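WARN no homologs supplied; continuing
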Amino acid sequence: MRGKLGAALGALLLVPAFGIRCYAQEAQSAAAPAPSLQQQLVAQYALTKTTDDKTDIVTAGAILILQKDGLLMYSTTSAAPPQDTYKDGKLSQGAYGVHDKMQRFGSMMGHPSPHPVQTRTFVTGEKFWVTNIQVQPDGVVFTLFTDAIEDIRYYSTLKFIFPKGATPPPDQVLNTVGQVLKVQQDEPAQQAGQGDQQQGAAAGDANQQQPPAADQAPPAPAAPPATPATVQLGQSIDEVVAILGQPDKIINLGPKQIYVYKDLKVTFIKGKVTDAQ
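OK structure emitted
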């Protein structure tokens, strides 16, 4: 009788212990939530840090390539950037776009705005940086910032509007943002990877080659190496970036700018190359 009673009491004591252990495991699983939408966006679109006066870049992040035409930007000397919006596959500017068109129309009629704003409309293929990302109840807002274009830097905000009354899942938001903003891949890293693949393939081919037969013609001589791209006096900033890629650092001295690369410094005055060291 005592044996049966002891076994019953032991079973009753095991039940709470088992329940506590299961609860602890569930709590541990709940302590590691999935990354938030904000975290996923920042991981995908690395932020760039600018100087306080928005004249230069302190820390470079991801380079973004525009995938749609019609992104309106203002010069960073303006008090506030325009707000572009993306909805139903189209970029628009709302009241900001109307204001810009009225300014242009007034200038054509000989009545310039008392507070002129330098504007520029960007098209597919143009590049810039992202300095901030905000997740709001009705959408996601990107703050965009450009390199100097003819001594002027531009900025704007771009809002991706959520469907009314619904917050889409993170993968859907990332897909929508990707329709407008594409991250430029690291070109030097890509080239290095391609070089490693080519060297591996060449080594494999060399191991498989057999001595040529006596009546077999000798292989044709290898083609001479391609002429390396060069930076020349008078080239524009866009031409130099197309040759060398984005610099490691930009020193902005007003009309004079210095693009610093790993083994080279290129000096521009009024957007043209004047020196390279």
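Residues 231-277 form one domain.
OK
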